[in-house]
Amino acid sequence: MKKFFLTFAFLFFAAALKAAPPVLLNDTEITVGDNIFVQLSAQEVDLEALSKSNFGDFTLRAAQINEGGNLILTLAAFKTGILTLPPVLGAQSLDIEITSVLDPDSPPYDILDIKPIIIFARGALFYLILFAIIVLAIIASCFIYKYLQKRKIEKEKQTPETTMLPREFALMELEKLKTSKLAPKEYYDKLSDIVRYYVSRIYGADCLEKTTAEIFNALRTMLAPADNAALRSLLQTCDFVKFAKFTPSENDTRSDLEAAKELVEKL
Fold it and tell me: 178: closest CA among 241, 255, 246, 263?
């Protein structure tokens, strides 16, 4: 009799354990889309059976066994109200309340139904007007482009080289060069260009593309011998720095700049 009683008690508690109700682990209000954690008393889990289980209005996101051997289901719901989780793996059903993320005291005026498609009748006149608008837009674009190009060309023509006297322009460029931070090669290259430009504008000789010797020979009849020799000496110094990698001192650099100013003011 005692043995029969123990067997009956064991079967009773085993059935009670298996039929233990699921436990909702969330301790805060559950809104739409939140993770819902439900604990089931299940010692062995058939994943294939679990994947085929009916979760009703809930979606299974994950499942794992915790340290206590219980099954923890991670669910989600996308409806509001009191939803019922059907029996899973022999457990009892469970009612879970899902609330909206919207403020219940403020009507959702920003959530509106999609308006139906409005179909407009399009006759030949519509396409004629559309074609005329496109043509006018193309013509207007062409006129605007030509106008802007003309303004750009006129602006490019109005440079200091064309609006200032050659001497004023050359002295202005030399003053800029004085405060520049160029390396010696670039510095003397710019110095040579300024002097060549000035001589070209004053004497009508194309000195920008000529060598120093060619400039000296071309200006023999135009400049006094001393001035022509001073010009050749300055240009030769520039050539040494540009092509022979000669590095002048700071005193030489200042002296050469003053020599260029004297030539511009004298010639």
Answer: 255
